[in-house]
Amino acid sequence: MPLIPKSHPRAESLLIRERLIDGFDNGLVAKEGLLAQGRGEAFDYLLGEKTGRAAKQAIKAAAAHLIQAQKPVISVNGNTAALCPKQIVRLADQTKAKLEVNLFYANESRKKAIVRTLKKNGAKEIFGTNPKYLAKLERIDSKRRIVDRDGIYAADVVVVPLEDGDRTMALRSARKIVIAFDLNPLSRTSQTADITIVDNVTRAVDLLIIECKRLAKANPDRLERIISSFNNKDNLSENVTQIKNNLTRRAGIA
Ligand code: PTJ
C-alpha cells in the first residue's frame, strides 16, 4: 500500500480506495467491485465525504428496525468484506444478526476468501455456504437469488451494503425490511429500500453500531415512533439537496 500522508486533504478516501484494491489483490473483490468503488467515490465526493444529517436520521431508523427485528441478517459481498470486515462482524454481534455471504458475481473461491476474512475478524457462524441449505428468492434472475434458507430466506430485516437494485426489489416483494448502504441516492437500491443510508459504508457502520447500543434498551413505543417518523423518499431528497448545496459551495456560486 503506498504511503498516504495523514495531512493529505483526501487521506481517508485514498485509504478506503487502497483497502479495496488490497481486497481485490487478495481475491475478495470482483473486478466489477472496482468500478462500484469508483462510482461510490464520485458520490462520496459530491456529498462532501462526511456523514450528513439525512444519513444520521437513516442510521437511527435502521438501528430501531434492527433492535426490533426477530431474525435480522447482514448480507456480505466482496466490497464490504474488503472495506470493513471487523465493523460488520461487530454490528452482527451487537444486533444478534446472522452474517450471510451473498454475491452478485458468484464465485466459490471468492466466497471462501470472504468467509476466511470474516472469521479472521471474529465471525463464528457464516450462512450462505452450505449447498444443502440453499433456497431461491423469487422475482430475481441474478445469482443473488440463491440464499440460505435459515438466513436471508427466513429473515425479517436484511441489511444490504452496496447492493444491486434487483435483489432489493425481490427482498421487498418477499416482505422483508431492507436497510441499504448506498452512496448514490438515485440508484434503484436507494429508491426501493425501506431505509437507505446514503453514506460510505466504512463511516456509517460504526455510527450504526453506536446507535444500536444507544437504543438497545429503548422501549418498543419509542422504537416504533422512530420508525414511523422516518420517510425514505424525503430522506433521499435531503441527500440530493446536500449534494446540490455542496456543488454550489465548491463552485463558489453561493
Ligand atoms: O461481491 P459481489 O459479487 O456481490 O459484487 C458487489 C458489487 C458491488 C460489485 C455489485 O453489487 C455491484 O455491481 O453493485 P453496483 O450495481 O455497482 O452498486 C453498488 C452501489 O454501491 C453503487 O450505487 C455505488 O455508488 C455504491 N457504493 C460504492 N462504494 C460504496 C458504495 N456505497 C456505500 N459505501 C461505499 N464504500
Summarize the structure.
This protein is 53% helix and 12% strand. It is of the alpha/beta class and 254 residues long. The chain has one domain (53-244): Rossmann fold.
Overall outline: globular
CATH H-level name... which superfamily?
Answer: Phosphopantoate/pantothenate synthetase
Number of strands: 8
Walk across the major sheet and give the strand order. 3-2-1-6-7-8
What structural category characterises the helix and strand content? alpha/beta
Explain what you see.
The chain has 254 residues and is of the alpha/beta class. The protein has a single domain (53-244), classed as Phosphopantoate/pantothenate synthetase (Rossmann fold). It is 53% helix and 12% strand. The protein is built from eleven helices and eight strands. The chain has helices spanning 11-25, 31-46, 53-68, 78-83, 85-95, 108-120, 165-173, 188-192, 201-215, 220-228, 232-250, and strands at residues 72-76, 98-101, 126-127, 134-136, 146-148, 157-161, 177-181, 195-197. The strands form two sheets. It has a six-stranded parallel β-sheet with strand order 3-2-1-6-7-8, sandwiched between helices. The chain has a two-stranded antiparallel sheet with strand order 4-5. Helix 1 runs antiparallel to helix 2 (31-46). Bound molecules: ligand PTJ. Residues 30, 32-33, 36-37, 39-40, 43, 77-79, 83, 103-105, 162-164, 181-184, 187, 200-202 line the site of ligand PTJ.
